[in-house]
Specification:
By secondary structure, the chain is α/β, with parallel strands linked by helices. The protein is built from 7 helices and 5 strands.
């Protein structure tokens, strides 16, 4: 936003697409600032593993005016297999924070559950089979449980620091919504 920043040299009507996971307040503040400069802002955080990104098959979680999304669609399509339009600016970020919070909870839960099972001396092969086919199974749990049980952390695609950041943003959003009542 400074004099050497990207927005300083954008022409009115230019589309700025934010694909990072940022706080809800940041998305709103950035939108307000860019709109004040005559720019179009779209929040479009993404979901998908690195192989999906490389193949252009991410899921985009979009918050934008419908007309602005239509203007940006040609730039978004090469990145994605799915575009989910949640509503106004900020709503894509809201869903992304919800999604990442639920994922963090699932990962923490499977780690704790596997640690208890191991400490209790359960057959870990049977535990993994039960976890992956039981009511707690989810793509997140299935993807991480085998690696966790094998103590193979080399395939992790998201750092603990990023998970913590996103969870903190989600909690801050929840708190702001509760205090608004």
């Amino acid at each position: 936003l400074g004099k050497d920043g990207a927005a300083a040299n954008m022409k009115a009507g230019t589309i700025a697409i934010e694909c990072s996971t940022v706080s809800y307040q940041h998305a709103l503040d950035l939108s307000r600032e860019l709109r004040g400069r005559g720019l179009i802002y779209i929040d479009s955080p993404v979901t998908g593993l690195p192989d999906a990104a490389a193949a252009g098959k991410l899921t985009l979680l979009v918050g934008a005016d419908a007309a602005d999304l239509e203007k940006a669609r040609r730039f978004l399509l090469p990145l994605s297999s799915t575009i989910r339009h949640f509503g106004a600016v900020g709503s894509g970020t809201v869903y992304k924070l919800i999604n990442n919070l639920m994922g963090a909870i699932q990962i923490a839960g499977i780690a704790e559950g596997l640690a208890i099972a191991e400490q209790a001396g359960l057959d870990m092969k049977l535990v993994l089979e039960a976890v992956e086919t039981g009511v707690a199974a989810s793509p997140q749990v299935i993807r991480h449980s085998k690696r966790m049980a094998a103590r193979n952390f080399s395939g992790a695609t998201f750092t603990a620091a990023l998970r913590q950041k996103d969870a903190a943003y989600a909690v801050a959003l929840a708190e702001s919504l509760l205090s608004a009542d």
